[in-house]
Amino acid sequence: MDQVDPRRLIPRTNDLLALPAVREARTRLNERVVRELVRKVQEQARRGELAPGKVEPALLAAVASLKATTLRPVLNATGVIVHTNLGRAPLSAAAVEALVAASGYVDVELDLADGSRSRRGAGARAALLAACPAAEDALVVNNGAAALVLATTALAAGREVVVSRGELVEIGAGFRLTDLMESTGAVLHEVGTTNRTHLHDYAGALGPDTGCVLKVHPSNFRVDGFTSAVPIDELSRLTAAHGIPLVADLGSGLLAPDPYLPDEPDVASALAGGADVVIASGDKLLGGPQAGLLLGRKEIISRLARHPLARAVRAGKLALAALEATVAGGLPPVVEALHADVEQLRRRTDRLAEALGVPVEAHDGRVGGGGAPGFPLPGWALRLPEGIAGRLRTGHPAVLPRVHDGVCLIDLRCVPPTDDDRILDAVRQALATLDVADAGRAG
Ligand SMILES: *Cc1c(COP(=O)(O)O)cnc(C)c1O
Predict the structure, then answer these.
(1) What region holds the L-seryl-tRNA selenium transferase N-terminal domain (predicted)?
(2) How far is the CA of 32 from the centre of ligand 1 (A)?
């Protein structure tokens, strides 16, 4: 008798699609995605890589672990608070709530009382002005880079932006603020030298072609030694006398001074010093969603808001909702991580170290994300073998440790204390598989 071709035993598409778990998956995943999964599993069986009887369980396992998003939550155990590769600032509970509420239809640009169209993002604007009374007006755009492009385009396209050579910053991934500004059609008029720029350098550059003067906070590097820069309050007297707008790009997004970061500029002080417009990011030290904040003088902010480019860089409703709640709600995780109590960090680290039988060492966290460069945040870390790092990153939950000097370090500064036990489990699992692998290699 002929043998039955095992391929004929492979379950049919319609039967697989009708399985209860697969039907459930078809309600939370796109039909095309589910069918593709079915096709892949059948294909494996046709190639003989999977027995026909194993098709159904393989499909069920695949369907159970498949989500509509491929973005995976990560526990940040690097000690770097504003981690650009991890999406910068984690949102506060208030911001998350606002984000979810705004995900449906929401009155982002509507006055519910009289049914007319209203100013977009009025709530976020009001929250920013309440938190920063020195600002006459505020505008929120897509991100800090967009804020800078909008300001330089509206104030200086076809004219000059006067900027110090000590402040020509590359902000990461090869993006230079200078290229960004030149892309707007403004001409950069560089003054001073890399290490020293004086008031007379600016004074000599101002003229009928000057569109604005720009101060950029060198947020991700430090020049030490024989240096000098002109502070905003001195520069603003010069620009005001010439009737030229002074734009200050602070980067970080601190609205008011933080005694913990004495060298980090803040919006309130820059405005008090006479800056006409201040630019900051929403997702750095402010601890909110990706956004670019422009705060300052009423005439200038409305000039920017009316510019056609403003429409191309406007903030979405989700960002506006989360930003307002970040400013008006409880402390965001970024601020908590920055001010984390060292003793408490030690106790949390010790507890995990004891449970795991691994050593603890002193470890400095960092602000990151181009903020407070070189400013260490003293703390502690679990010390683990380097080989465990990959397993931690790809485990459940995913944990990103710091790998440094041939060891893998777990710093709890940016981990919510309620997640300590998840870290413990993740490290246990990773250590166990590492031991197995080591034993395998030895044998
Ligand atoms: C981070 C930064 C920017 C860019 O802001 P994004 O929100 O990342 O677009 C611009 N200028 C300075 C000084 C910065 O630190």
Answers:
(1) 7-46
(2) 39
Banded model confidence at residue 252, pLDDT cuts 50, 70, 90: confident
Q: Would you say residue 1 lies in a domain? A: no
Total domains in the chain come to 3
* Among candidate residues 309, 329, 349, the one where a domain is terminated: 329
Residues 6+ apart with CB under 8 A from 291: 140, 141, 142, 143, 281, 282, 283, 315, 319, 320, 323
pTM, two decimal places: 0.93
Q: CA–CA separation, 260 vs 266, rounded Å?
A: 13
- Say how many residues make up the chain: 443
Q: How far does the centroid of ligand 1 lie from the alpha carbon of residue 144, in Å?
A: 5
186 CA to centre of ligand 1 in angstroms = 19
Write out the residue range of the structural domain in which residue 47 sits. Answer: 6-65
Task: Judge if 249 and 100 occupy the same domain.
Answer: yes
Is 420 part of any domain?
yes
Q: What tokens appear for 225 in the block?
A: 């030694």
Q: Write the residue with the smallest CA distance to atom 8 of ligand 1.
A: 144
Chosen domain end from 276, 295, 329: 329
**Spatial separation of the C-alpha atoms in residues 68 and 62, rounded to whole Å:** 13
pLDDT at residue 443, as a whole number: 46
Tell me how far apart the alpha carbons of residues 439 and 443 are, in angstroms, rounded to a whole number.
Answer: 6
